[in-house]
From TrEMBL:
Residues 3-170 form the HVO-2928 N-terminal domain. It comes from Salinirubellus salinus. It comes from the Archaea. This is Helix-turn-helix domain-containing protein. Keywords: Transcription, Transcription regulation. Transmembrane segments: none annotated. Residues 184-231 form the HTH bat-type domain. The keyword Transcription regulation applies. The keyword Transmembrane helix does not apply.
Length: 239
């Protein structure tokens, strides 16, 4: 099995849902999607973050005029069904079924037309980034998918290429994403992005604290708590 990864980056003001992420760094989401046909797909997406941000996510998702799928200049017209499966504290699990897609294009509809049937999608959202991992039976027409996406993205969206390679294990993020409070999650992600966990480390605690605008002692506490939770999740399973 092959995997193709890429990221769509959103500017502020071009997508109401992604604006919630841009305005709430502690908000993240992971999803698992299946493309039933080229004109329909289903999605399970779990959002983790402050309750007020989750309220905004639900309002945007249920807005009948909101086009979450479209990545081209022409809006996507579709029949959309959204259901809140679970809402508990700082977590929200949403199920979506989108059918009769026409008009503009979504990543799912482009992939459904171009790639072999049976593709699966994992995505992550944080700040202005929507990261995609597409699991494929073969890599036939992946180049065409790349060309179509990069050539047709609407203004305010940018494309970043990841990799195309054999699948090296699969640990679905939707099932295994650790439960971390927002401030700990932001601290851990920032430390990782700045290279703190590289060997040798590319960043110090002072560098990360300066990036986040918090005292070094506060950052150290948040990282210790986050790392302890990750260890518990690894050996005991997510609570």
């Amino acid at each position: 099995m092959r995997e193709f990864t890429f990221t769509v980056v959103y500017d502020r003001g071009v997508d109401p849902l992604m604006d919630v992420f841009l305005e709430t760094p502690a908000l993240t989401a992971v999803s698992f999607d299946g493309c039933v046909l080229g004109d329909r797909f289903w999605r399970l997406e779990r959002f983790t973050g402050p309750p007020e941000a989750l309220d905004r996510v639900e309002r945007v998702r249920r807005d009948e005029d909101y086009d979450d799928e479209g990545v081209t200049e022409t809006p996507v017209e579709a029949v959309r069904y959204h259901e809140t499966v679970e809402r508990d504290g700082d977590r929200l699990l949403l199920y979506s079924y989108v059918s009769d897609i026409h008009g503009g294009d979504s990543v799912h509809s482009i992939a459904g037309r171009i790639l072999d049937e049976g593709a699966l999608f994992e995505t992550r959202r944080h700040e202005g980034r929507h990261e995609w991992r597409v699991l494929l039976r073969t890599d036939r027409n992946v180049g065409q998918l790349y060309d179509t996406l990069t050539g047709r993205l609407r203004d305010g969206l940018a494309f970043e290429t990841g990799h195309l390679r054999e699948v090296d294990g699969w640990n679905p993020a939707l099932l295994n994403e650790p439960s971390l409070p927002g401030e700990q999650r932001v601290a851990l992600r920032t430390a990782w992005e700045l290279g703190y966990y590289e060997t040798p480390s590319d960043a110090s605690l002072d560098d990360i604290a300066e990036e986040l605008g918090v005292p070094r002692s506060t950052l150290s506490y948040r990282l210790r708590r986050a790392e302890a939770q990750l260890v518990r999740d690894h050996f005991e399973g997510p609570g």
